[in-house]
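Re-run with default settings, no changes from the original entry. Doing this only to confirm the output is reproducible before filing.
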Amino acid sequence: MTETADLEKPIVVIDDEAPILLAVDTTLRMAGLKPVVTCADSRQALELLDRHGASVVLLDLNMPFVDGETLMPGIMAHFPDLPIIVITGSIDVETAVRAMKTGAFDYIVKPVDESRLITAVHQALKFGELRQENQALRNHLRNGGLQHPQAFDAIVTHSPKMTALFHYIESIAATEEPVLIRGETGVGKELAARAIHTLSGRKGSFVAINVAGLDDNIFSDTLFGHVKGAFTGAEAHRKGLIEKASGGTLFLDEIGDLNQGAQVKLLRLLQEHEYMPLGKDSSHRSNARIIASTHADLWAMQEKKQFRTDLHYRLRTHRVWIPPLRERNDDLPLLCDHFLHQAAQTLGKPKPDISPDLLPLLGTYPFPGNIRELKAMIFDAMAQHKSGPLPVSVFRDHMARSQASGHKTIRHSDAGDAPVAFGSSLPTIKAATRRLVQEAMQRCANNQTQAAALLGISQQALSKRLKNMPHDDS
């Protein structure tokens, strides 16, 4: 059975009884919780913690020289974020409760139950991670700037919404817990997952797979692997992606499309950090960090019993929502220039200028395919470009085809999906139409073609309305 990766800092056990130290050390290591450092003399405890650090301290209360109740305030003063689990005899439970009121995380009664010990240590580790995450988030808010901006170099943006998202990603990247990335198709969910992996400092690989459409057997074979002879055609051992991502990150794209059988197996992997290759009767432990993504509404799928509630909650320990391109139109100039440069290099052409009409036109379009769609539009326009500015007609044709295929081309206002507000008296249809046309023309800097696209009518129909507007009755 493989073991989990070493903790960054050891679990420190302070107890004067050698059998207790040996039993706790063995139990923790067998559970994959290591390294473990033991201390039999409480007088040396603070020096040992200064030298090695600690992720969790297991502290006996009843010891010679310096008892645990006396030692604990000193540990907390030097290491305020360090979770402490006190170990006590059954007759000293009141002392343990007093220690918890002082700041201990938990207590365990001797003789130490293995299951209780492992559970308490796992919970203390998670508690410590949350403390670190909260502290990191406070530091981000206090300091303002990103600590590692280079981790986000692949994401082209200067949107305040995305900057806020980067701050959150920095604060959660080092934890072991799963991350659920949500967002529409084409917003860059895998780029965000790669940034999390880079910031995590994990030494293993980033391994990505799209799980949409994988049935139970293919999912198991792909993720968990198989041994020779596991099924007809299994002529050699095959490593699964979990094993390939050991010590790194496994990215599961489109998790909302995973079938029920595969959902059960993924849940076990998340809960127990264990998996079983096909054809093998013993479990392997996994130390890969899981990041999942989806464009689907998992809450709605959960209500319809299409996605397991327990799996949903396990996946969404940390949640990242990437806004669609229509909500960050301030990135359009930067993205257009970036993709135009890429397209010019790929196609071996000089980079043309961008027509002044292009950005206002793109600002009226909701981009159902988001950044991926914008990139495709620019590459298509660049392929057709011969001379002069980039042809705007290519973009107009794309938007018209999108509208004809059922995609709405009317951009939501900054108020989102809020209904139009009216006063105490309603305007007539003609007056409301006039106001709508005026608003569209104002947004599009009096460009009739762009305003017509925004209103969902032809340019000729808009021109006719503009000519008749001064004569409309209110």
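The CA atoms of residues 81 and 132 lie 8 Å apart. The chain is about 45% helix and 10% strand.
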